[in-house]
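Record passed on underneath.
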Amino acid sequence: MNRLEMLRRISFGAQVAEEETSELANYFVETDQWQRIRTGEIDIIRGDKGSGKSAIYSLLINKTDDLFDSNILLISAERARGATVFSDLKSTPPTSEIEFISLWKLYIATLIAQKIREFDLGGSEGKNLVSTLIDQGLLNEEHDLARMLRGVSRYVRSWFHSSIEPTATVDATGSSTTFSIKITPTETDTAGKLSVDDLLAMANSALNASGRTVWILLDRLDVAFVDSHELEANALRALFRVYRDLDAYPQIRLKIFLRVDIWNRITKTGFREASHITRFVTLEWSDASLLNLIIRRVLSNSHLLDEFKIDKQTILANFDSQRDLFYQCFPAQVEQGTRKRATLEWIISRCADAAQRTAPREVIHLLTSLREQEIARLERGESPPPSNQLFDRAVFKLALPKVSEARLVQNLYAEYPQFRPFLEKLRNQRTEQTLESLSQIWSVNSVQTSELTDQLVEIGFFQHRRERSPETYWIPFLYRDALQLSQGLAEE
């Protein structure tokens, strides 16, 4: 098979986990972190955007049957793709923390009731929970999460904006009276009422009676409240307080997937519950783990294995063999010279943000872009790279701009639109700036400049270099192509 035909057949997968759910098992390495999540030791999975949170979420969903055999029921509280189920909350958000806590608890109880009804679990306790929520119009046959959350939201809103009292209905003979149970946010002594905690207790008892535990998975929280950091903070603070309250119900566990920057944002001004949240893991990627990720993506291509007579298991069993295979497929250096980086280090550094964090998403995107550029090069009739190399060194710098543009537009501009005007003013400027040069470029005073630079350091756009005099702000390679920056220190 010629090199062009092989490149057309191979793939390095999608950079977004939701787009390659069925293939993830071929790439994923079951690390100690994964085993601790799989066995229930970990509840909170934190990581940077593109670090693999959604990959773990997707793999858990794929193992639903295995977990069911282990008496664990998985419930997703959010759609895997498309519009978030929480979108309606943006227009009519809860107005207080207790309202948000009540919303989370009632939504969780309703999700569990749906699952109990689906599998006919929990005997009389399960039936009571299901019938109570059906009576209140909170369960639907369609299993539509958005519709369910809208119903829960309306119900909770009514607690805080109108009086809910139990109603009584007398039959035609006047001899029988039926009381309709109403749900309230908190415990009450009034007859005919149940609190949301009563519902959770009923759910816990029903699950315990059937020997089951539920894991409620909450992913995509970064897009759920993306338009308002205040709403996001209120929602997530309430969610973590609910997480702590659920300690009283051992059959109910939340599994929360959250970006590190969002966690830092909601705890920045103080969050007492944070110190009590210990069942968490933070996903981090070393150079070695990124090499392993690249090799697993390479080895997922059967055409390549057959062509080069590669034994997949032998390579995966030995880390030195993985590095050797990398340099069979990739050139030794992108930029030649004794002081230039080796190709693996070049890839990792070019995909890193200003905090020197490299996420798998950008690495996978770069591999895909490299493939596209090499195919285009060979289609023009240029010579293939030597030996078994997949890519000529000439395509690396051509592949990076797509990655840079996607990171700038889909990450920074999409999530921090308030910074876009300032970043656009840096277009065609130098890669290293001082406070004075930035103040001139942005046309703002020194105080505003200092505030802006601190915020841009926090989100990984600037690296603050304090060792220089004056101190400077350095922009990583990841953003340079998109903004057409030139290397060097700005002239003041």
Remarks:
- The chain is about 50% helix and 10% strand.
- The chain has three domains: 3-12+286-411, 43-278, 417-489.
- Confidence is low (pLDDT under 50) at residues 163-170, 175-179.
- The radius of gyration is 27 Å.
